[in-house]
Each structure stands twice: as structure tokens, then as C-alpha cells.
From TrEMBL:
<dbReference type="Pfam" id="PF14529">
    <property type="entry name" value="Exo_endo_phos_2"/>
</dbReference>
<feature type="domain" description="Endonuclease/exonuclease/phosphatase">
    <location>
        <begin position="12"/>
        <end position="113"/>
    </location>
</feature>
<keyword id="KW-0255">Endonuclease</keyword>
<keyword id="KW-0540">Nuclease</keyword>
<keyword id="KW-0378">Hydrolase</keyword>
<dbReference type="GO" id="GO:0004519">
    <property type="term" value="F:endonuclease activity"/>
</dbReference>
<dbReference type="InterPro" id="IPR005135">
    <property type="entry name" value="Endo/exonuclease/phosphatase"/>
</dbReference>
<protein>
    <submittedName>
        <fullName>Endonuclease-reverse transcriptase</fullName>
    </submittedName>
</protein>
<dbReference type="InterPro" id="IPR036691">
    <property type="entry name" value="Endo/exonu/phosph_ase_sf"/>
</dbReference>
Length: 195
């Protein structure tokens, strides 16, 4: 955010970010040059903008990741802590090794580095699934359902799509790769009765 905007415009931008995090109700990382100074992110001084951020940080239960005591902005002898990384509580457990890099960035702002741990995919999601479909049962199911529709309903994309999806579900058996093939006498009706 620009250091040159007035406080009212600044608070509007902060509100927009915070309300987005609140309304989405998902994991989030907020990172950037917020041009606010605060003890919360290790600045030796605090300002009016920080107070506004502090209210939102408390309201949303956000975590401040800035650690290490190295300024994020350096121009000559002037140093500031204005680049901030915040996250939701759940996301905070996934952010590791946060640090300000000392190498040249070719700007007044230093690089900020952190790693984001990826949650492991549940095993059942990684197993390949084999689908065996009884296409004659599928066709029969679609035909029966379409015959029972009024003429206007047959032209509805949504209704026809729903019929095809249901017919597919009723005529398909899913299982891990390597399952035995389905006996010739097996059908969707038997599959439904076993549920």
C-alpha cells in the first residue's frame, strides 16, 4: 500500500483485505508492503496505521510471522519494518522458516522467504480407482427417465445432465485397481440393494 495515501483511504484498503479474509472463511496468507510500523512485527516504533491493523489482527485471530529482527526495508541508513506476513490460525501451522533475506534485491525492500508445508493427501485419494460401467444399464436408465419427462423438460440442459449423472452412478462400480471383474449377472439394481 502506498505510503502517500491518506488514513481514510488506507483504512478502506485494509478493510477490503480483512473483510475478504473474513467472508471467504478459508485459510489465508496476507503478505506485502503494508507501510505500517508496529511492535507486532518487530518495528522499534509504532504508528497510527498499525493500530488499525492490530484491531483486524485481533478480530480475525491472525498470526504475525515476522521474526528475526531484520528490517524489511532499507534505503541508505533508513531502515523500516513495513513488509508483513500474516496468516489465519490454521494456515500458520503450515508456514515455516520465515526470514528476511540479506541478499541484494535491487529494490529498497528485502526479499522475504518462507516455506509453505503442503498437507498430505489422504491415502484413499491417492489410490487409483477402477470404474466398471454397465453401458446397457446406463442406456436403459436414461431412456426410461427421458420417456417419463414432459416435452418441455426434455429440452432442459440441467434436467438431462442430472439424468445422465444419476444413470452413470447407478451403472458404475468403483474400486481400487486390481479388483475382480464384475460377474455377468451383476447390475445396478443389485448394487443399490446392497447399499
Amino acid at each position: 500500500m502506498s505510503p502517500n495515501i491518506d488514513f481514510a483511504e488506507y483504512t478502506e484498503k485494509v478493510d477490503e483485505i480483512a473483510l475478504s479474509v473474513r467472508s471467504e472463511n478459508k485459510e489465508a496468507v496476507i503478505a506485502g508492503d503494508i507501510n505500517a510500523k508496529s511492535f507486532l512485527w518487530q518495528s522499534p516504533v509504532s504508528d497510527k496505521r498499525e493500530e488499525y491493523w492490530a484491531e483486524w489482527i485481533a478480530a480475525l485471530n491472525l498470526v504475525v510471522h515476522n521474526t528475526g529482527g531484520l528490517a524489511t526495508f532499507a534505503r541508505g541508513t533508513t531502515q523500516s519494518f513495513i513488509d508483513v506476513t500474516l496468516s489465519t490460525q490454521k494456515m500458520s501451522t503450515r508456514i515455516i522458516n520465515w526470514k528476511v533475506m540479506e541478499e541484494e534485491s535491487l529494490t529498497d525492500h528485502r526479499y522475504i522467504y518462507y516455506e509453505l508445508k503442503v498437507n498430505a493427501v489422504p491415502k484413499k485419494m491417492t489410490e487409483k480407482q477402477k470404474c466398471i460401467s454397465d453401458w446397457s444399464a446406463y442406456n436403459a436408465n436414461v431412456e426410461i427417465r427421458l420417456c417419463n419427462l414432459e416435452r418441455e423438460e426434455r429440452s432442459s440442459h440441467k434436467i438431462c445432465t442430472d439424468i445422465m449423472r444419476e444413470a452413470y452412478r447407478n451403472s458404475t462400480i468403483k474400486g481400487p485397481v486390481g479388483i475382480k471383474t464384475v460377474p455377468c449377472w451383476w447390475n445396478a439394481s443389485i448394487n443399490d440393494k446392497r447399499k
